[in-house]
Design brief:
Layout: E1 15-18, E2 21-24, H1 35-39, E3 42-50, E4 53-55, H2 57-71, H3 77-93, E5 100-108, E6 127-135, H4 139-144, E7 146-152, H5 167-178, E8 183-188, E9 191-195, E10 199-204, E11 207-210, H6 221-233, E12 237-239, E13 252-257, E14 261-268, E15 271-272, H7 280-293
Parallel strand pairs: 7-8, 7-14, 11-12
Antiparallel strand pairs: 1-2, 1-6, 3-4, 3-5, 5-6, 8-9, 10-11, 10-13, 13-14, 14-15
């Protein structure tokens, strides 16, 4: 099996933040009554860290706030205000001031008894978990291009919220892994929505196409950076639905995400995309993202 799947390297970070305390990962425990564990009642964010600096951290936290507000999870202001400082402290404690890493934030509605589907009254105290892990992007795969498969999009109708309900995503990712592919591209009613953990772009006649903003996709932070870079570079963008068959008519197919970066896709379901090599638009966006991140 090829190594197209895993781009996280290094040992697990040894210190996490959980509900007001920094502690060794092995000592961090969450209640069996936590609604995140019982119902998937929570949201998460993954933030890239480059040379000790959270990349686009404010944008990630804004999306986190949107998810919390939509799910009516009331994070105390004193906790929310501290999160940027907590991120920086975890970077220091885990000695990831150099190189690259990822920060994982998960906030659930918190523990509550008795177990009921409706929200607890009085409100539970949200559980806040933040961790850090060393990360190394798969530069070779980004240079050479990846293989992908298409799968049915079986998710719920609020994919615009970054919730911890990820079972369809994990099943899609596992299916891709079993077929020796980098990832899965989801299809709903013959329309391309997004990848199992990234957004999808197709280049046709010099124009970037991607699914329009809607509850059917999560508008990725890197996706928004692509829009900015494309505008600066004079690349037209159309937010229009693409059919699955359109992928095989495209000159380029590109996946984007916080840990995906700008990933050219050169083969889907065993069929070659374009000329079977990463194309000029992907290369231009890769260069722009590296410049934006301040990485080599």
């Amino acid at each position: 099996m090829s190594k197209q799947h895993s781009d996280v390297t290094g040992e697990q970070a040894s210190v996490v933040y959980l509900d007001g305390h920094f502690k060794p990962r092995e000592q961090a425990c969450i209640s069996i009554d936590d609604r995140g564990f019982l119902f998937g009642d929570g949201i998460y964010e993954v933030i890239r860290v480059v040379e000790g600096r959270p990349f686009l951290g404010d944008a990630h936290l804004e999306r986190m706030d949107h998810g919390l507000n939509t799910l009516n999870i009331r994070l105390p202001d004193a906790v929310r205000t501290r999160i940027p400082d907590i991120l920086n402290e975890l970077i220091r404690k885990n000695r990831i001031e150099t190189g690259q890493a990822t920060m994982y934030i998960q906030i659930t509605r918190g523990p509550a008894q008795p177990r009921k589907h409706f929200h607890p009254v009085p409100e539970a105290t949200p559980t806040v978990l933040i961790s850090a892990t060393a990360f190394e992007p798969n530069i070779k795969l980004q240079k050479n291009g990846a293989h992908a498969i298409t799968v049915p999009d079986l998710r719920w109708m609020r994919c615009d919220l970054k919730t911890i309900n990820l079972l369809p995503n994990t099943l899609a990712a596992q299916q891709a892994r079993e077929q020796d592919a980098f990832g899965a591209i989801m299809v709903r009613d013959d329309v391309i929505t997004e990848g199992s953990n990234n957004n999808v772009f197709a280049v046709m006649d010099g124009t970037l196409f991607t699914h329009p903003d809607s509850p059917l996709i999560l508008s990725g932070i890197t996706r928004n950076v692509v829009f900015e870079m494309a505008e600066t570079s004079g690349i037209p963008i159309k937010k229009e639905p693409l059919r699955e068959a359109d992928l095989f008519l495209a000159d380029e197919v590109i996946l984007t995400g916080t840990t995906t970066d700008i990933q050219p896709v050169i083969r889907i379901n065993g069929r070659e995309i374009g000329d079977g090599r990463p194309g000029p638009v992907a290369r231009l966006l890769q260069k722009g993202l590296r410049r934006r991140m301040g990485s080599s």
